[in-house]
Amino acid sequence: MTSIFSKLITSAVFAAGLSTAAFADTWKFASEEDKGDVQDIFAQAFAESVKEQSNGDIKVRIYYYGQLGTENDIVELTSKGTVQFVSVGTGHLGSYVPEAQVLDLPYVLGGDIDVIREVLTTSPTIYEDLSEKFEKVNLKLLTMISEGDMAWGANKAIRSPADFEGQKIRTFTSTIPVETFKAFGANPTPLSWGEVYGALQLKTVDGMVNPIYFIYNAKWHEVQDYLIFPGQLPYVGTVSTNSDWFNGLPADQQEMVKNAIAKGEQAAHDYQIKINLENMEKIKAERPDLQVIVLTEDERAVFEAQSATLHETFFDVVENAYDDAEKPAARAQAQKILDGLLNEVSNASQ
After folding, report:
1. Are strands 291-294 and 226-229 parallel, antiparallel or unpaired?
2. Residue 102's CATH number
3. 282: DSSP letter
């Protein structure tokens, strides 16, 4: 009995030691995506930079989609400190940072790659006003990345809101992506990405929205007949860390993280441009019968007009996430964030 008890205690202490060592020497990085996707390229470059800067003393372990749960699960694990870093799209952050959905509003960021990158990496609105909201759930926003222009997948041509009628479109899990497709006339269906191929194959959903590189990697082009480019918005990925954990790091390790983030952002930016172009060519080669539609300026203008109502929806979503006493200030802050972002996009476009 004593021997068994001793073994249990020894095992518990050993496990605790391993846990402490892992926390000190191995940083966990959870991604919503899989190997070869843009967030993986970011994570790999980040990990390599940390390893190099620490002379191999600190390693970064990357966890891919499903290994630690859903997109929402890995955000929660990072907020609680079980995981140190998380990369996830803004469309999955709504329940934690409702203000982050400003980046899901159609036609806010525009379609210029350089403008989008400048805003996502240097915006005072993002890294002061919005970042403050991340801190409230114990997350520190480190950077944002574009993963490429979002395309609609469908089994019919979609050129107007009327074409969306009766169409079930897979969306992300936050409110604004869902409300966007309602405004466009579709029936939005939030799903985690691992469920999408089967849903498209079985026709339980009719279409989806994602960057081209991801559509190809997930093989969704195999079960869609049309790809439509509406110029709606890019897929915006976020990289955050546990705020308490980061603030407890020595200054040199905080600087190490910042340097590694810059390396990851550059690698992801270069890769997303390359992989989106390459994967579009692969889709055309594998599915020569698949129709590709680029909306005209007049067609885009109709969807942009439909999107205007979503600004008030965004304010409502943010306001409703707070207690009654905080609602007026929350709504005003949401408007400030949207106005600031629109102003920065306008200035960067000149």
Report:
1. parallel
2. 3.40.190.170
3. H
Q: What is the three-class DSSP state of 257? A: helix
With the CA atoms of 37, 181, 205 and 69 taken in that order, what torsion angle do they form, in degrees rounded to the nearest 10?
40
C-alpha–C-alpha distance, residues 302 and 232, integer Å? 11
Total domain count for the chain?
A: 1
Residue 291: in which H helix or E strand, if any? strand 291-294
Which of 71, 70, 132, 74 is closest to 99 using CA atoms? 132
Average pLDDT, the chain: 92
The predicted pLDDT at position 91 comes to 86
For residue 109, which of 331, 320, 309, 304 has the smallest C-alpha distance?
304
The two tokens of residue 96 are: 């934690």
Selection from 228, 209, 229, 231 nearest residue 220 by Cα = 209
Q: What is the DSSP string of 119-145?
A: HHHH-HIIIIIIHHHHHTTTEEEEEEE
Percent of the chain with pLDDT over 70: 93
Average pLDDT over residues 93-101: 93
Cα separation, 97 vs 350, in Å, equals: 30
Q: Specify whether the CB–CB gap between 85 and 241 falls below 8 A.
A: yes
113 vs 211: CA distance, rounded Å:
13
Burial class, 162, CB count within 10 angstroms (exposed 0-12 / middle 13-18 / buried 19+)? exposed
Q: Which domain holds residue 263?
A: 2-349
- Report whether 214 contacts 207 (CB < 8 A): no
pTM: 0.88
Q: Are 293 and 225 in contact (CB under 8 A)?
A: no
> Could you please report the per-residue DSSP string of 134-203?
HHTTTEEEEEEEEEEEEEEEESS---SGGGGTT-EEEE-SSHHHHHHHHHTT-EEEE--GGGHHHHHHTT
Interval 231-247: pLDDT, tens: 999 999 999 999 999 99
Pairing, β 139-154 against β 208-211: antiparallel
